[in-house]
TrEMBL record:
Family designation: Belongs to the DNA photolyase class-2 family.
Pfam families per record: DNA_photolyase (PF00875)
Gene Ontology BP, a term: photoreactive repair
UniProt signal peptide: none
Key word NADP present: no
Domain Photolyase/cryptochrome alpha/beta, chain residue ranges per copy: 21-152
EC number of this enzyme: 4.1.99.3
Protein name: Deoxyribodipyrimidine photo-lyase
Keyword Lyase carried by entry: yes
Catalytic activities: cyclobutadipyrimidine (in DNA) = 2 pyrimidine residues (in DNA)
Class of enzymatic activity (EC top level): lyase
Length: 463
């Protein structure tokens, strides 16, 4: 199928350069060689112009590293890039990777390019890159939005109040955007004379070893990065655990989660590809499919809407709605039944063994089930000296240990703990009218079985 016009935005409306040597694509958000609308657009244009395609990536390192990223995040990223390069090589597309910022490599390679193609992200740092590129590059620039199902500004022109306000807007557009993507044949294969990088991604472990970064949070064994692994996991999931998604999705011990979130975060799989596979799955009924699409489209794209339309989405005063801040402020001096330092929280040294287990799963394996993420966050609010302190702690722990931390979903989910996309509830100590979550929520699943699951997962990481 063709790339929908709604995904395509011309950022610098000038004709492609007649003396350009190639079409360059900044493969920064969508780290994959297949089912990638921006890449297919670049190939289509290169074929029309009689030119090869070069994909590029700027690897932030040292003092200029990606904010809050550590060895865990970079290991997964580099594994994915190594896999993407193999796919690009197979297709005859060049790849240039350098230790520099995404903006700098795009600006440099655009000097000899007929056309620059960008993908799209919604975080402030990504918008800064794109802004610098547009200000500096004189050739034609086209941005293709391929890591959401429905382009954010087409779905809504404003910050949405809650999932219930965005859902009908997305549902009206689902069928138009949940379509297959034809992979174009590359007519002019990359060869000699194209720009060269200074990073050999063939050995991602060696690249990681040569970087200056935080190594206190190590890589995990539970997840391997790359689009090949993402598709393998998705296929296995849809022929097995997915059959019980509708009934078991909120049971952490049941194994009904797909674990696609790290791969979506790093752009190693397309949400449209997932949606198509879910719709076509033989396992699972209509309720299972509807429930899964609610999570991967409505909830995920509500998060994209939030960070796109909120300046200061990582700050308590901007991210948390006024009614919730007021309610929490009115109870800021309430006595907390328990208080813990951030180190105690990180190490899982609280009185609550189930919370400690959830923290251990996150700390050791980079993942925590969504149902427990809500409980985990609400308890940090309850156990912190102030709501402002709790918000900052929750975000730091989230971004440090989760593989999918520093994501639009991360910022949005943390703000949800403090009242975002929610309404006032019955008043109580500490929380005011912000939603509370008690230990009773643990009765909805087999908490003791979950403890055993976490014990096994953590042991596997240490072996």
């Amino acid at each position: 199928m063709a790339i929908q016009a709604g995904r395509i935005t011309v950022l610098n409306d000038v004709p492609p350069r007649e003396d350009g040597a190639y079409v360059v694509y900044l493969l920064q958000q969508a780290n994959r060689a297949h089912f990638n609308p921006a890449l297919e657009y670049a190939v289509t244009e290169a074929n029309r112009l009689g030119l090869p395609v070069v994909a590029c990536f700027g690897l932030l390192d040292g003092a200029n590293g990606f904010p809050e990223a550590n060895a865990r995040h970079y290991a997964f990223l580099l594994q994915g890039l190594a896999d993407a390069k193999k796919g690009l090589d197979t297709r005859g597309i060049g790849f240039c990777m350098r230790k520099t910022s995404p903006a700098e490599i795009a600006i440099d390679l655009a000097r000899d390019a007929a056309l620059l193609v960008l993908d799209r992200g919604y975080l402030a740092i990504q918008k800064t890159w794109y802004g610098a590129i547009v200000a500096a590059v004189k050739t034609r620039i086209v941005q293709v939005e391929g890591d959401v199902v429905v382009p954010v500004e087409i779905a809504s022109a404003k910050h949405e109040f809650a999932a219930r306000t965005l859902r009908p807007k997305l549902h009206r557009l689902f069928d138009e955007y949940i379509e297959g993507l034809s992979e174009r044949t590359v007519k002019h294969r990359a060869g000699r004379g194209l720009p060269k990088g200074d990073v050999d991604i063939a050995d991602p472990d060696a690249v990681l070893a040569g970087m200056t970064l935080d190594r206190k949070v190590p890589p995990v064994k539970r997840f391997v990065g790359g689009e090949t692994e993402a598709r393998r996991r998705l296929k296995a999931y849809l022929t097995g655990p997915f059959a019980d998604y509708g009934t078991d999705r909120n049971k952490p011990e049941a194994g009904a989660a797909s674990h696609m979130s790290p791969y979506l975060h790093f752009g190693q799989i397309s949400p449209v590809e997932i949606a198509l596979a879910v719709r076509a799955a033989k396992a699972g009924g209509p309720e299972d499919k509807a429930a899964y699409l609610e999570e991967v489209i409505v909830r995920r794209e509500l998060a994209m809407n939030h960070v796109h339309y909120t300046q200061g989405y990582d700050a308590y005063a901007q991210a948390v709605p006024e009614w919730a801040r007021k309610a929490l402020a009115e109870h800021a001096d309430d006595r907390r039944p328990h208080t813990y330092t951030e180190d105690e929280l990180a190490e899982g040294r609280t009185h609550d063994r189930y919370w400690n287990a959830a923290q251990a799963e996150m700390r050791e394996t980079g993942y925590m089930h969504n149902h427990l993420r809500m409980y985990w966050g609400k308890k940090i609010l309850e156990w912190s000296p102030s709501p402002e302190d709790g918000f900052a702690r929750t975000l730091r722990l989230n971004n440090r240990y989760f593989l999918d931390g520093r994501d639009a979903n991360s910022f949005t989910n943390v703000a949800w703990v403090y009242g975002l996309h929610d309404r006032p509830w019955a008043r109580r100590k500490v929380f005011g009218t912000v939603r509370y979550q008690s230990e009773n929520s643990l009765r909805k699943f087999d908490a003791k079985a979950y403890l055993k699951t976490v014990e096994a997962l953590c042991a596997a990481e240490k072996n």
